[in-house]
Amino acid sequence: MSHDHDHDHDHESSAVTSNRVKRLVAVLERNNILSEAELDRSVEEFLLKSNPGNGQRIVARAWVDKEFKARLLENASAAVGELGIDLSHWSPVVLRAVENTVHHHNVIVCTLCSCYPVALLGPSPAWYKSEAYRAAVVADPRSVLAEFGVQLPEQTKISVWDSTSDLRYIVIPARPANTDAMGEKELAALVTRNGMIGTSVL
Amino acid sequence: MKFNSGDRVRTVLDDPMGHSRLPGYLRGRNGRVVGCFGAFGNPGERARGNADAAPEAVYTVAFETSVNTEILADLFESYLEAL
After folding, report:
1. Do the bridges between strand B30-40 and strand B8-11 make them parallel or antiparallel, or are there none, so unpaired?
2. Would you say B29 and B54 are in contact if contact means Cβ atoms under 8 Å apart?
3. Spacing of C-alpha A91 from chain mean position
4. What pLDDT digit, counting tens, does each position of A48-83 carry?
5. Cis omega before residue A92 (within 30°)?
6. pTM score of the predicted model
7. Backbone dihedral angles phi then psi of residue A179, each to the nearest 5 degrees
8. 3-state helix vs strand vs coil in chain B, percent to 5
9. CB-based contact (8 Å) between A73 and chain B?
10. How far lies B21's CA from each of A57, A81, A93, A140, in Å?
11. Pairing relation of β-strands A104-109 and A157-162?
12. Which of A66, A98, A202, B60 is disulfide-compatible with B34, CB 3.0–4.6 A?
């Protein structure tokens, strides 16, 4: 992927989008539907509840507690509630957790826009929103992962989850070796954002 | 619910006016239903002014793309036909 070209292209299209959003907000205000101040307050409230520490805690708990992990894989929205993580502001989103193992690697994308589990990971990185990533990861995930430094043998199954509706995904990365002596807090600190998107192994 | 886990389905070829959450690269393709994890308002319907449309079942559908590689997408029931 040519980083310079994609960077310019992304700047150009983000300026176009930015202008379109400004005009849309102006129309909404003129028609007394929504004010910019209300919008800002809403975004700020949402971001205050969005904390990458949430994702890390979920992964660490899944690593140390097999039953929790089973509940998480079955119904993630309910399971994260056990950790005091309140997703009600995120409704009607349904959360799904998918687990990376030696045999199966999962990676997340939103090809249509850039849907992302902000509540659990914080705001998304620029590369996740780029047209380059969104196009390439569904066309050739094995190569894209290799570019991120994740070399997977042909025998490893790859699942690419395209967040096309109101489901949001978090990847439970494989627990790194030599961590048996670590407590939950220490383990949580090992969990990276890219690990929870699926573009990194820990 | 129209589809069950394991059902083979085909996505529609429509490219409707306005908004759709069926990505272009997944139109007219055969897949396998993995499950149904919720029903949600269809934003395409809302964009067409149909704000009161009932929530529509969303199915997670797997598409084999190459050896040991699949894409899974969450698709509204109206995007899918039984195979």
Report:
1. antiparallel
2. no
3. 16
4. 888 889 999 999 999 999 999 999 999 999 999 999
5. yes
6. 0.90
7. -120, 15
8. 15, 45, 40
9. no
10. 32, 29, 15, 22
11. parallel
12. B60
ipTM of the complex: 0.96
Q: With an 8 Å Cβ cutoff, are A167 and B60 in contact? A: yes
* Residue-level pLDDT at A7: 58
Token pair, residue A63, equals 């690593």
Is the predicted pLDDT of residue B80 greater than 60, yes or no?
yes
Q: Which of A 119-148 lie inside 8 A of B, CB atoms?
A: 138, 141-142
Residues 6+ apart with CB under 8 A from B31: B8, B9, B10, B11, B61, B62, B63
Where would I find the beta strands (DSSP E) of chain A?
Answer: 94-99, 104-109, 157-162, 167-172
Outline where chain B has alpha helix (H).
43-47
Task: Read off the pLDDT band of A15 (50, 70, 90).
Answer: confident
